[in-house]
Design brief:
The protein has about 625 residues and is of the alpha+beta class. The protein is built from 17 helices and 18 strands. The longest helix has 23 residues. This is Poly(A)-specific ribonuclease RNA-binding domain-containing protein.
């Protein structure tokens, strides 16, 4: 990796845009709340951020796409990085992380080599941890000068003010070592000998005793073997100048070891410094893991997180959001990555031909590598080019290669797809999100024995409903007849009943303080105009108040194939479906401006709740004959 890093940086600098993807050791710890269709962007962030700190990235894919305007050809350099936070010293972090058996089993089935992950994986450090280690190393090296007597300094245990006394039980061992050293000093044919590995305490005794007895006749140095055991190498005594050179070489080796430990973080930092467009597919989890592992711990506050994103990666685009937005939504039946790639090769879209740079994987006719991070990054970039070129074809005159006109995809910039939330289509990293009217949504608490049929029967007076289960004793209920919302509390809430209904607004205002129901309520028979599902889908966790910071992430396409937007986890739609609406872009994109946080401070202080001035809406509800109207001014 160290030898290839300059070439990787060169590829990033040369790229027209970058595509990323990551694979993880798991997605959910099974103890936190699942996502649902009435999450707000802040709630979704709180639910998924914990996954970034509990699970580990094992593979990171980077595809650097370059368009040559003279030859009108695309080229790509694709990288697969195996990631493992190997502790390089006793002072370095000893990382703990969770593994989810289903996730590991899936990755193994897709050909991920875990032996390579753990044997050859590239380490990483966040800037804050790196700085702490630099300060510690600098302090330790200064102490070498303060206590310059070699008798009181061990090669791996620092400095001591006085030599240690050899305990009775270790005297025979130390005497044997001294005998080996004495024989070595008499044998002029050898330049050095390696003592048997032993623990740190015995190495300290060896170092101090041998130096006291043999003075400058020998030079001792610690060595780490391939099996991670440590031993002492005894060499012939050096001159004072030679010893100084050895000391400087040792210090330089320690600094180089720290540089190597920074590892893959250098790639992410260079991507950030380059300011290049970064493209992902359903990229929210990829973004969370990237920031947490390689930049800084994710803040609890959602607005601080958005400021952090805008500073580290100022230009991002989510191809899943593009595929689920007009003018693509009516033309793309599924936005799963593999299927999306196939759809974009057929009319009205045009297949994009991309050449792999010599020495890099050629994925053009290879569909067997799905869920390899590098391949998924490549396909993501391919889909971005295909959709961007389609936007160019809608202009007058048509633009054949959209990468020459980045303003075509500006309406999607810094927006992240929000899975399964139909009335908030995206998370806006550079402005405010949509704030939909949810007056037709109610929160209900009920006895544990209740089923969907009971809830639907209770709301029969106001028509058909959608039930979104939160846990065994609570759910959200959405009315299809929104005009009936003002009747619900008066018609349904009755004194002495074993259930309690409140508005969505009251629930989020923290007014949901009611004792849990203590008795069952007899089921009402289902009414004839309600098509009830056979059973409910419930989460086994108790009701929460407001936000839960220990929230579980949603299972993404990387581990388990995602259900497309037709359904919702924990949701049961009772009878009628919502009326079809579709969305439209504004007539021209707004300038989102530059990130307002200084890049040099992005990882130490993300508390500045700075936002871009862009609050422009991407979506408006109109009939489905909308067309793409952006950039017609060219």
């Amino acid at each position: 990796f160290k030898e290839e890093l300059p070439k990787i940086k060169e590829a990033i600098d040369k790229a027209s845009f970058l595509a990323i993807d990551a694979e993880f050791t798991g997605l959910s710890n099974g103890q936190t709340e699942s996502i649902h269709s009435f999450d707000t962007p802040a709630e979704r962030y709180f639910k998924l951020r914990k996954a970034a700190s509990e699970f580990q990235i094992v593979q990171y894919g980077l595809a650097a796409f370059h368009f040559d305007a003279d030859t009108e050809k695309y080229a790509v350099q694709t990288y697969n990085f195996y990631i493992f936070p190997r502790p390089f010293s006793r002072q370095a972090p000893d990382v703990r992380f969770l593994c989810q058996s289903s996730s590991l089993d899936f990755l193994i089935s897709q050909g991920l080599d875990f032996n390579k992950v753990f044997r050859e994986g590239i380490s990483y450090l966040t800037p804050a941890v790196e700085q702490d280690l630099r300060d510690s190393l600098e302090k330790r090296q200064k102490s070498y000068k303060q206590f310059s007597s070699p008798a009181f300094t061990t090669p791996d245990s620092g400095t001591y003010k006085s030599p240690a006394t050899v305990p009775e039980e270790h005297k025979a061992f130390i005497d044997d070592i001294c005998k080996q050293v004495e024989e070595f000093t008499k044998d002029k044919t050898k330049e050095s000998i390696q003592l048997d590995p032993c623990n740190g305490y015995l190495r300290k005794l060896i170092y101090q005793t041998v130096q006291l007895r043999f003075k400058n006749d020998v030079h001792l140095e610690a060595k780490t073997l391939e099996n991670k055991q440590r031993c002492i190498v005894v060499a012939r005594g050096k001159s004072e100048n030679d010893l100084k050179q050895l000391e400087e070489a040792k210090k330089e080796a320690e600094w180089q070891e720290l540089e190597d430990a920074v590892g893959f973080s250098k790639v992410i930092r260079h991507i950030s410094q380059s300011g290049k467009l970064v493209v992902g597919h359903n990229m929210f989890l990829d973004l969370l893991h990237t920031l947490h592992h390689f930049c800084a711990p994710l803040p609890e506050d959602y607005e601080e997180f958005k400021a952090m994103v805008s500073c580290v990666l100022p230009r991002i685009i989510d191809t899943k959001l593009m595929a689920n937005t007009q003018p693509f939504k009516d033309r793309i039946v599924t936005s799963a990555l593999g299927e999306l790639q196939t759809i974009l090769t057929m009319p009205p879209f045009s297949k994009v031909h991309i050449e792999a740079v010599d020495g890099f994987p050629n994925y053009e006719n290879n569909s067997d590598s799905l869920h390899e991070a590098g391949y998924d990054a490549y396909v993501t970039g391919l889909c971005y080019i295909g959709m961007a070129n389609y936007l160019g074809s809608m202009l007058t005159p048509a633009v054949k290669h959209a990468l020459t006109k980045p303003e075509l995809t500006q309406p999607f910039s810094n927006r992240i797809f929000l899975m399964r939330v139909h009335d908030i289509p995206y998370m806006n990293m550079s402005g405010e999100e949509e704030k939909p009217n949810r007056d037709h949504v109610f929160h209900i608490r009920f006895p544990k024995e209740w089923k969907t049929a009971d809830i639907a029967a209770l709301f029969t007076p106001v028509g058909n409903v959608q039930v979104v289960w939160l846990n065994d004793t609570s759910a959200f209920v959405a009315l299809y007849r929104k005009d009936q919302a003002h009747h619900v509390l008066k018609m349904i809430n009755k004194p002495g009943e074993q259930y309690y209904v409140m508005t969505y607004e009251a629930y989020h205002a923290g007014l949901h303080t009611m004792p849990p129901p203590s008795a069952s309520r007899k089921r009402r028979p289902p009414t004839s105009d309600v098509d009830l599902p056979p059973r409910k889908k419930a989460s086994p966790i108790p009701t929460i108040t407001k936000f839960n910071l220990d929230a579980s992430p949603f299972v993404s396409r990387k581990i388990t194939p995602i259900m497309e937007e037709e359904g919702c986890i924990g949701s049961e739609e009772v009878s009628l479906a919502e009326s079809d609406t579709c969305k439209k872009f504004p007539s021209s994109p707004e300038d989102l401006g530059e990130p307002v946080l200084k890049r040099s401070k992005i990882l130490n202080n993300v508390s500045d709740k700075t936002k871009s001035n862009s609050g422009e809406k991407l979506f408006e509800e109109e009939p489905c004959d909308n067309v793409y109207e952006v950039c017609q001014h060219n």
